[in-house]
Amino acid sequence: MFLVKRNLYQEYLRYEKLLRNKVDKDSFETRDFYAMIDVLRNPQANYGQYSFSIQLLTQFVKNGYGIAPILLIDEYDQPIMSSYEYGYHEKLGQFFSNLYGSAMKGNSVFG
Questions:
Q1: Residues 63 and 29 sit within 8 Å (Cβ to Cβ)
Q2: What does pTM read for this prediction?
Q3: Ranges in the chain, pLDDT < 50
């Protein structure tokens, strides 16, 4: 899980630098984006706090560039399959369901 969180954090920082002057700093989406950076930076943050991070990131990117981004998630099923195989599905299954669901099915950016 550390790698997922760290990679999300790095993507947030990358897009923050690219788009900081292209988004409305007072919009709710932008405020939520910056709040998520704080969550991802916090070592005490729980999985539920950043399970919708991809959805927020894609909204921020769309707001900055004016078009919906293309989201590619390679081997998205591997963490879910591993969670069953190694016995941590009960702990992280809902996180992955929320993360992928909000990123793909529940994401109005692609809607």
A1: yes
A2: 0.86
A3: none
For CA atoms 9, 79, 75, 101, the dihedral sign is negative
Helix or strand holding residue 102 (H, E): none
**Per-residue model confidence (pLDDT) at position 111:** 67
**Angle, helices 53-65/28-41, rounded to nearest 10 degrees:** 140
Using left for φ > 0, alpha for ψ between -120 and 50, and beta otherwise, residue 91 falls in: alpha
Tokens of 53: 């991070």
Radius of gyration of the chain (CA): 14
Total residue length of the chain: 111
Structure-token match 């996180």, residue found: 95
